[in-house]
Structures are given as C-alpha cells and as structure tokens.
Design brief:
α9 packs across α10 and α11 runs parallel beside α12. The protein is globular. With 304 residues, it is an alpha/beta fold. Helices cover 35% and strands 14% of the residues. It contains twelve helices and eight strands. The chain has one domain: 3-Layer(aba) Sandwich (Arginase, Chain A). The two termini are 27 Å apart. The protein binds manganese (II) ion. Manganese (II) ion (MN) binds next to loops.
C-alpha cells in the first residue's frame, strides 16, 4: 500500500506570514544540479505516494475583537482534515500531513480520534514550544499555541467537543525550550514527558529517543509532529518560520528522530509544520523533503 500525503495549506492563524504553498516546494523539491539530483531524487521518491487534494477551508472574515482570531476558519479546517483522515488513513501504513501552521494538529488529532482509541495513541511533539496553551493561559491568543491542549480536551469548546471525549493521554516533547508560565501548569496537569534541548545535548538524541519510546511503550500507535522551529534558529533564514528560537536541534538530529520513529512499527503518521513560503528552494526545503521521505520509509538513510 502506498504512503498517503495530505497537504493542509492552512496558515491563517498568524497575521502576515504564510505557509500556503510550502507543501508544493517540499513535494517538488529538486537538487541544486542534475548531478546532485541523481544522488538526492527527493521529488521522484515522494511521487511514489498517494497525494490527496489539498484540504480546503472557508476563510471567514476575522473578527479582530474576538478572543482567538480565525477560530471559525480553524474549526472548518479541523472538520475537513478530520474527514480526509477518517476516509483515507490506514493505521498500518504511513501518512504524512504537510502543513501549514501547527494549528493543523487539531484536525489531525480529530481524524485519528474517529479511527482509534486515543488511550492507545502516543504523540511525539518535536517543537521549540509547548503549543499547550488554552485561551485562558495564552498571552498571544494565537491558535498555533493551542493544538496539544485541544488534543487533550482543553480549550475552545468548538475545537474540543468534536472529539467526543476520545482525547489523547500521552505526549512526549523533544527539543522544547520556550514555555510560558500558564502553559507550564497545563503541561504538568496532563503529565507531559519533556525532553528539552538541554536533555538532547547532554544525553544525545539516541538516548532521548529510547527514553521516548519507553515512555510510550503502552501505546499501540505513534503520531510524530514536527515543527520547523524545533531546529536551532541559526539554520533558518529570516521569515522561514514564524517564531524561531535559538539553542535548538540540528538538522541531523531531526533526521535521526524521523528515521528512528518511522522505523517503529507503531508509527503511522507524521506532520511537518511551520515552514513558511520563501518562494525559493532553501536548505530547509531540501531538509524537510528528506524528512518527508524518511517519514514514509522511502529512500533509506542517505545522510549516514
Ligand atoms: Mn509548534
């Protein structure tokens, strides 16, 4: 069975920035020269996947005086993405959900919740940030700060109630380094397992990955969610992601995480989020095309 790719060009939760065409860059990535293309034919490999039509959603006029901008658009995206997952996902095969910003995880999670017992699903969240705020704890009121909380049943009722009480129970963070005060209480409340950037530095990524899998050993299904800002900001160009953060992971650590997790029989779904449009292929396009390949078990580990 071919791996499934679902593009979700949803990026309305940040003002000004966009990640609406990023999936095209990742899927159509070509190398710097025809010679290099022979060694790194990313686009060719990803062509072996089943590609769904990009998820559509209504762009409601933002009411800037509401508590959370673009909430109605997010609800629409959540429903449409969940429906696509419900109708197409096979938990025994690999699926890649290509964002878009990290709000897409409210739709990915809802889709999974319609197919699987969420008690048996473990989330590995590779991000500089916790993304575990609620409208009460959030300072920015930005939707991209909510998706983990929503998957645990916390936050806007419009996003939470569709889960019908089938919420996630386990999340392990890797590379997290930017958490705010209210959010820390929520992370404690949901008993999140946190491997910070310092843990990765001191223990090494391999040890962190073994500990992560150990923590999720009672889960039958593993969902990997990667935010581009998990990378150290030194690797990113200006505007390449919305909230860059220093002191983060290296490209090779991101590749190692993806390879390690997708080699697990429990892993069934990966998300790539928060890579903005720069309208040119950058090092990040090439890196995340490679992450995309590895996430669906294509191409082997050529960077070793
Ligand atoms: Mn994020």
């Amino acid at each position: 069975m071919k791996p499934l790719i679902i593009p979700v060009p949803f990026a309305v939760s940040q003002y000004g920035q966009s990640a609406t065409n990023t999936y095209k860059r990742i899927l159509n990535n070509t190398s710097a020269s025809p010679v290099m293309e022979k060694f790194n034919p990313s686009a060719l490999l990803l062509n072996n996947c089943q590609l769904l039509e990009p998820i559509k959603f209504d762009k409601f006029i933002d009411k800037q005086n509401t508590m959370t901008p673009f909430l109605e658009s997010a609800v629409d995206m959540q429903q449409n993405l969940a429906k696509a997952i419900q109708n197409n996902l096979n938990p025994k095969s690999k699926t890649l959900v290509l964002g878009g910003d990290h709000t897409i995880s409210v739709g990915t999670g809802l889709g999974i919740s319609r197919l699987l017992d969420m008690n048996k699903v473990g989330l590995i969240y590779v991000d500089a940030h916790g993304d575990c705020n609620t409208p009460d704890s959030s300072q920015s009121k930005c939707l991209t700060g909510y998706p983990v909380a929503v998957n645990f049943g916390l936050g806007h009722k419009e996003l939470v109630e569709p889960f019908n009480q089938n919420y996630l129970h386990k999340v392990a963070y890797i590379g997290v380094r930017d958490i705010d005060e209210g959010e820390e209480k929520i992370l404690h409340h949901i008993s999140a397992k946190i491997f910070s950037n310092i843990d990765v530095e001191l223990q090494g990524i391999t040890q962190v990955l073994y500990s992560t899998m150990d923590y999720l050993s009672d889960c039958n299904y593993i969902w990997l969610s990667i935010d581009v800002d998990s990378l150290d900001s030194v690797y990113l160009q200006t505007g390449e992601t919305d909230v860059p953060s220093s002191g983060g992971l290296t490209p090779r650590e991101i590749l190692a995480i993806t390879k390690f997790v997708s080699d697990s029989k429990k892993h069934f779904l990966t998300e790539i989020t928060q890579l903005n449009d720069l309208e040119v292929n950058t090092d990040m396009t090439r890196l995340f095309s490679r992450v995309a390949e590895l996430s669906v078990n294509l191409g082997g580990f050529r960077y070793s």
